[in-house]
Structures are given as C-alpha cells and as structure tokens.
Amino acid sequence: MKKSLILSSVAAIVLTSNAYANTDLGEVLVTTATKTEKNIEGVSASVIVVSKEDIEKISASTLKDVFEKIPSINAQYGRFPHPSSASKAAISIRGVGANGTLLLLDGKRLSAETENPYEMNRIPASMIERIEIVKGSMSTLYGSDAIGGVINIITKKITEPQTAIDLKYGLNHKGDAKQKNFNFTTIGKNEYFNYKIFGSVIDSTSFTKKKSYTQSAVNPQTGMILGANPQNGISGNEGVTYADDATVLSFGTRIEKELTKNFIAGLDFNYFKEEREGTYLGNAKFSGGGLIKNTPILSEDNNKRIDLSSDFVYHANDDLTTSLRFYRSYYKKRNETTPQNFTGPVNKKFSANVTIDNVESTTTYTLNDFNTLTFGAEYRKENRDSSAINPDPNSDEFITKEVTYKSAYIQDELSITDSLNATLGARYDNISNAENKVTFQAGMVQKFTDNTSLRVNYSQGFRAPDIAELYVVAPVYKDGKRFGSDVIYGPKTTSYDLKPEESQSFEIALLNNFNDFSSEIVLFHTNIKDKIELVSYGTGNAKFYTSENLDKVEINGAELRLDYKFSKFFQSNFNLTYLDSEDKSSNKELTFTPDVSASLGLDYKINDKLNTNVSFRYIAEQYTDTQNSETTDAYTLVDLSLNYKINKIINFYAGIDNVFDKKLEEELGVNVGSYVYGGFRFNF
C-alpha cells in the first residue's frame, strides 16, 4: 500500500511537470557515457554532472561530501570484511550494490580494496573539474564492475595558467572529528610543455561512540567456550570509532607535449599516502591460547598508492581520432590490529598488494554526416597479493590471485533525423576466471520541440565475482565470520560455484524546459540474474556469511528532478528517487536499499558577493538483513552554507552540516552530529 501511494504521488508530480516545457540550461558536454564528447541532451543514458561550481557551493572537501548530497546514490556501510567497516562506506547506484559501481579517476581504474570503501575520503575535491555519474549498466563500454553505473572523477584540465589554494577547518559541536584541509593546484605553460601540479593534505581526528561489550574466549576450531581463560566474560565500555584518526597526503602532476600539430603526448604521476587508525570491537588471539571475541582492538593502516600513466592522441583529420593509453596503479595496504585488553599477537591478516596494469586503445571515426563510429580494445591484468585470501586464517603469508581481461567493443552514434539520434553498442569480454561475455546496448533520444525530449535506453551488463567474494577468509565479520564462496573452513563445509551477475535494464525519460523551470522524470526496470549477495548460515559461534547467487532480482524505480529559478537571486532544485528491489526467490527486499530518498536545495544570492545555500536530505527506512526482519529509521538532515567573495582573489566560505544534530543508526555509519566548518579559497 505504501509503495502504491508513493508511485501515485510521483506520477502526479510528473503529470504536473509535463504541463511545462524545459529551460535551455546551456550546452553541457559529457564524455563518460559514450567515450566521445557529446551534449548531455543527446545522451540516451541517465547522466548527472557535478561541476566544480557545484562542489564549491556545498564547500565539499572530499568525494564523501559530494556523494552524500547526490540523489539516487546511497552509501552502504558494513560490507568491508574487517571490523573497521563501521567507519567506511562504498557507493551503490539504483540499488544494484556497491560492487556494481565502477569508480574511475580521469577514466582510469584505481587499485585499492574491493568495493573501494575508502575512496570517498581519499580524493580531495579541490582537484576535481567535474564528476560524471552515469546511472544504469555501462558494461558495453567499461566491462565488468559497471553493471550499476560509472562514476568518473575528472580532474582539472590544463588551460590558462592559474593557481588555486584552499584552506579549510571543521569540527563537530562537541569539538570532535576535527578536520584540517590544505589543497593547491597550479596550471602552467612554457615553450616546451604544459603542466599541472596538485597536492592535498587532509588531517582528521577521530569520532567515537561508547559501546558496551562482553568478551568471550572460544576455541577457534570448535567454537567451544573456554571458561578458564582469564579474558572470558570480561565486560566494559569502549569508544568505538566511526570516523578514523587519519592523515591523507595526495600529490600529482601531469605534463602534456604537442609533438606535432596533430599528435599530443601526456604523462601522469599520482602519489597517495595514508595513515589511519581507530578502535573497534572485534576478535583477537590470546597469547595463552584461544580466540577472544568481541574485544576492543586497535586497527592501524599505513597505505600508499602510486599511479603512472602515459597517453597519446592522434588527430589524423577532422573525421578520425585515435588514442592509446598505458597505465599502472599500484596499491600497498598494511593493516595491523592489536588487542587492547591483553597482550596478544599482532594480526596483519588484512594487508595486501594490489596492481592493475592496463592498455587501451580508442578510435573515433565520423563515417558521414549520420554515423560516428567508436572502436575500442583493452587488456587489463589485476594482481592481488593478500593474507586475507590465505585459506589458513592463522597465517599472515600472502597468497596471489590474478585475473586478466581482454575486450573489444564497437559503438555507433546515429543522427537519424535532425530531431532523432540513436546509440548502438556491443562488447566482447574474455575473462580468465569467468565465462566469456557479450553485451549490447541501444538507446535513442527524440526531440519533440526545442524544449521537450524523450530518452529510451536498453542495456545489458555483467559483473564477474571479485577476489574477496571468492576467496576471503575473515574470522570476524558482523556477528559471525565471512568466507569466500570457494573457501572450505570451519562451519563452511562445501564450496559454492559463484557465477557472474548478468543484467538487463530498460529506461525511459522525459525532459522538459520552460523559461525558468525544468523537469526530468525517469522510469527504469532492471532484471539481474545470479546477483551476488552475502547470505548467512548457522547461529552463535557457527554463524558465517558467504557469497552466493540470487536466482533473480528485480529492481523498479523512478527518479524525478525539478529545478526552478524564481529570480536571478533565488533558485531551487528538487530530486526524488523511488526504488522497489526484490529477490524473486525469497520475495525479500535487498539490504541497504531505501525505498525513497529525496533532496531539496535552495540557493539565495543576497548580493554580488554573498551567496547562501540550504539543503534538505531525506532517506527512508531500509532493511539491514536479508530476512527483512531489521530496519533502520528514516532520517532527514539539514545543511547550511555560505560563500562570500572578499575580492577577486579571496573567497571565504562557512557552513553547518546536520544543523539539528540528527543521529543515525550504527548500521548506517553514525554521523558525527552537527558539524561546523570554515575556509578560504585563493585564486591567482
């Protein structure tokens, strides 16, 4: 009944908005949806563009600040197989799940943890030119991992010489979760080459919440209680970390050289270093024998990543352009957990080395006035060395797993008439640890008038199981353990043949513009075969989680955007997302997929120097377990911000996030309460 009422309300708003026609929002060019530069109004897929002006408006410091305020994108906590998952989230688009979202930096994959649970706090917002978010499967262009969508973070381009510096400081109303940010970017040109240099330091103190605990000592093999162990039954209160004490350093540079009039070469180097620590409730070995469960542990990370790439672009003529890119992304993770209540061995189980090597070529050819063809080929090798995938949970020795991907794709962008265009695409993927896959995509955009257009899109997607889903051995995960599908250990006595996910998505959207009002309504339907999800078995000491396929999952949804400019001083934007997700074999909804999420932003320009913004975010209740027996409460957050232009060089900004100190439940990560910040931007 509730869902029917929601759908009826959405339909009513759509009918109202369709009485108007859409304003000309100006030309917005995007590249992620087709790998060619195209006006967003001619793209058949759903695309959100977050500009650097949007980022500055909300005074964002990191990707986390940006993603929290984007509709139809939800953070999923607690999926990372480590006690510290309480402070880390991954991104899910349209309910498909965190593993189905491909995160790119300037079109390149990043080596990191599975599901990228850290990346939101690692990438400084000051280096971003724009973020392109393509919702819906993009497997025909990007292969595995893009079954739910693609987030492409595009850094500032080398244009006219400029230098920008950003200084920011913030803390919550109790003086916790302090964060100091320093960011700079400089862009220049000389007679030899063009260059860009950026750097960022983000220093954060922790935010903790007191939790009571009672330890139990068990035999790790049988799960039997060891009543004679001196740590058994000890109780206490501990400040559990929900925002790590962390220092994140990022540095990067790009050099471009015009070798000839038509041939450009580029070289990128990025370096990232992170120190992070927090206190969590987990498991630790006791020196005298036994495993102590639900005990305070200190988790310390010392991580770094080095990305190196070279690219070459050749413009043969106005009709033919080809590019070639090589890159390597190397990530070194070193994690240690140490018991706090007793002396025990240091656990280094979740350390890893991850390397991605990639070679890709793209050629775009304008065949005639009606057809633009894009051909592409890619070879990618991913290596993961980790003790977390060692079948012996007592060993810190690294085990190596390697996966290779070979793919080729073709896309045709057709201008059928002046008002009708279409996009057709196909891709072939050869994957070393899964079956070969062929995917197709077809979409069209019909422009009825200068102000009204219709988008229709069909896309197929797939996702091969990742290494954690196949091989992880985690002695502690939530209220049990976690084992990969291939693992046989302890209470898990059989392996499981985990198949790749396959999806089909259908989408239709109507866009209208009229003077100062614009609207967009999107209806979508996604079928996922063999969706990979965590399922649990057993109870008590025998409880464990593992990855298995759900036979069929169906996701239906609607998205609504309404923008209205009341005057040159005051404008608003409203977004609403409705999701109905269901595992057809159990008739249960997917976890961490709220039915409704909505946002309202109000911008008021007081004068030429002072701008203010208030935003409201609503997230409905969501299930936290596969049996749909436990839910989180719905919540609404209110944020305020202002920007003041002191002069041509200096801007001051300040704000309060979560003005009314709304508390979130622990399953959703627990926010830090009301958060006050201020900073200065310098542009030279």
UniProtKB/TrEMBL annotation:
Keyword Transmembrane listed: yes
Annotated TonB-dependent receptor plug domain residues: 42-150
Subcellular location, principal: membrane
TonB-dependent receptor-like beta-barrel domain mapped to chain residues: 270-659
GO molecular-function term, one example from the UniProt record: siderophore uptake transmembrane transporter activity
GO BP, one annotated term: siderophore transmembrane transport
Pfam families in the record: Plug (PF07715), TonB_dep_Rec_b-barrel (PF00593)
Transmembrane segment boundaries: none
Keyword terms, alphabetized: Cell outer membrane, Membrane, Receptor, Signal, TonB box, Transmembrane, Transmembrane beta strand, Transport
Annotated localization: Cell outer membrane
Gene Ontology annotations for the cellular component aspect, listed alphabetically: cell outer membrane
First and last residue of the signal peptide: 1-21
Membrane topology annotation: Multi-pass membrane protein
Family from the record: Belongs to the TonB-dependent receptor family.
UniProt protein name: TonB-dependent receptor
